[in-house]
Amino acid sequence: MRSVRSRAALGATLVVAVALAAAGLAVLLVLRGNLTDRAGLEAEVTAREVAGELALGTPYAELELDDADSHPVQVTDEEGRVVAASEDLEAISGTGTAEVGPDPSMAPAPTPDDDEDDDGGDPARGEVSTDTPDFANGTATVDGESQEYRFAAVEATTRQGVTLTVHAGAPLAAEQEAVDTVRTSMLTGLPVMLLVVAVVTWLVTRRALRPVEGIRRELAAITASEDLARRVPEPESRDEIARLARTTNETLAVLEESVGRQRRFVADASHELRSPIASLRTQLEVGAAHPELLDVRGAVEDTVRLQALAADLLLLARLDAGERPGRTAVDLGALVREEVSQRVADRVPPQVSVAESGPLEVVGSRQQLARVIGNLLDNAERHAERSVALSVRAERRAVIVEVTDDGAGVPEAERDRIFERFVRLDDARARDDGGAGLGLAIAVDVAVRHGGTLAAGTAAGGGARFTLRLPAAPGPVR
């Protein structure tokens, strides 16, 4: 069964079947026990009546044992011999002996006059046992008809000190008939109830899963059309299916944005690669035709530019793929000095200020953090007039790196947009001077993946200020 509805209906039907079977068995056992106890009580009453007669000295032949159909009676002595029994009793089982008539060799019980005391007082009295009688199931045949009975055994002591056991039975036909009726009703009604449960479960499950089918059809249509702008229908209910639909739409929105960003990235990357490749090709073709006109320096610059752009694109691809930064301790103060020392030939050499107070260590990838600082310095140098300043300090369990310049600054409305990929605010400037617009995008992405932030602001002198905030290392990192 591949259908959820079928499995749900089958599961519910099986559970109900087991529950009804267990409940039905319990009802039958309780009913049988109650009816058997009632029959045992009837048998005990009859046995005690006969035992009372024996205790009063009633002769065996005068015992009231006429109701053999309803309550067959058998009386035995201490040796198990039958001394009295119901007149029409033909066979019996479950009482300890199968005899149905008194033993001819037994002497008749004495009459009440035989036991008067010597002074002419009242005759002596026997007694009936007050102990709980023994019960047993058996059969008895009366007038050729056999039935099952519940027998009760009650002991009685005569005035002569003879202990007799009275076995009296009560029919179990009513108990058997009631149990059979209930069993038949259950066996007849159980399939009907199970069919109703299966049908109701099928209908309810189909209604409950109808929104899921709508979601599936819409997702199939989205897959076929590749139109990520479409959304699945959201039910008005607040159940799990509605939450599934909302989560699916949120996933589609993220997927749409991711695919759109990827497409824009590919388009922008192709556009950025076109210029240096075309320039390099032109120079090589000119050099091939006229070797004396080959611009070797221009070809090298274009090659370097291509190499840097390819490295940026590769790093962004790794970041987009979820590459996790390293877990090594990095001293930002030492890293900043190292980066600045390699920039002696820069157009505007940066001025460095590193605060020695407080820990300056962070946890992450040394190579990626060096790339962030290098990109911030490149951006500052590109826009500075005469000076670039860089400072490192510890502040509230964080390490702050600030890079400032004395250029035109970043307009407040553009301070979020400049961190997007391939975005340049100086579009009128030549691409060779302005770069590809990936440096700040790489810097903010690396900062976020290291648990930090990168924000743009205004420097004290009116230029741009970029603030990199990274969480300080909690302790020694091995």
What does this structure look like?
With 478 residues, the chain is α+β, with helices and mostly antiparallel strands. The chain has three domains: 4-179; 240-320, Helix Hairpins (Orthogonal Bundle), CATH 1.10.287.130; 328-471, Heat Shock Protein 90. The protein is built from eight helices and 14 strands. It has helices at residues 4-55, 173-225, 240-289, 296-320, 332-341, 366-383, 431-434, 439-449, and strands at residues 73-76, 82-85, 89-92, 127-128, 134-142, 145-157, 163-171, 328-331, 350-354, 361-364, 388-394, 398-405, 453-458, 464-471. Strand 13 (453-458) and strand 14 (464-471) form a beta hairpin. Residues 114-121 and 427-432 have low confidence and may be disordered.
Name a few traits of the molecule:
alpha+beta, 14 strands, five-stranded mixed sheet, Heat Shock Protein 90, 478 residues
Silhouette: rod-shaped
Query: Mean pLDDT score, rounded?
Result: 82
Distance between the termini: 55 Å
- How much of the polypeptide forms β-strand, as a percent range? 15-25%
Overall number of strands: 14
Report the sheet with the most strands, covering strand number, pairing sense and barrel closure.
7 strands, antiparallel
Q: Report the uncertain regions.
A: 114-121, 427-432
- Our Rg estimate from Cα atoms comes to 53 Å
Q: Which bin fits the share of residues in helices?
A: 40-55%
Tell me the domain tally. 3
What class would the helix/strand composition place it in?
Answer: alpha+beta
Order of helices and strands: HEEEEEEEHHHEHEEHEEHHEE
Treating each run of at least 4 consecutive H or I residues as one helix, how many helices? 8
